[in-house]
Input
Amino acid sequence: MEDSSGRIVGVSTVGRDITERKRTEAKLQSAHDNLEQRVLERTTELHRKNEELVKQEGVVRELSGRLLQMQDEERRRFARELHDSVGQLLVAISMNISRLLQEEDKLSEPARTCLDENANLVDQVSKEIRTISHLLHPPLLDEAGLESAIRWYIEGFAERSQIRVHLDMPADFDRLSSDQEIAVFRVVQECLTNIHRHSESARAIIRITRGDGQVHLEVRDEGKGIPPEQQVALNSYGAMGVGFRGMRERLRQLGGSLQILSSEEGTVISATLPVVSAKKTTP
Output
């Protein structure tokens, strides 16, 4: 303390008890440290769960790819059995009927009628078996390649559905790997089936090109389109129809993608795949 002239004449001290404040600060620091520890533990747990999820997704994708491969192998085997086993039995029945037809003048009129009907029925069954066998796994896909197999399929589809289908595909389209040719064929098959079932379109256009190291597939119709809310679901990886899920999974296994655009003027399905050419064997 100073007097009027500024000379120090005394000293005064003031004290404050900050024990409670220190306790409060200590509690806050402890709570903060505990919170940081819990956040760190939770973050570590989330990282671990995420790694497990990534591993599980990888396993699921691997299993899904294997399932598709097994499905294609089973289709190929079943198609071969239908064509070879059942087909040969029908040929044998047809030959027996042909022998009987050579002596039909010895039969009664009702018997001749039944024989003619049986011959026609065997012929129809043979055609149905051949069609089913080829739809399961078209032999042209292995023997002649993608273009021949797709042209064969759309000719039969147009005849059965009365839907006009135009294919725009270069005649010199090189062979792709077996898995890719099957994938493109199945996408075309599924798209045309959906057009027939749902779109009410009288026309479909298929365009297949390759460039910049990719195969581009586009299937377009002129139908009633897909409702907007369903479009959102179809373009996401969530819930979607079995057919679209199968198409998307096939393409994803091969590094490709699938997109759907639809309006009241029709629907466009676009698929893209990185090119993997067929392996050429040397003689």
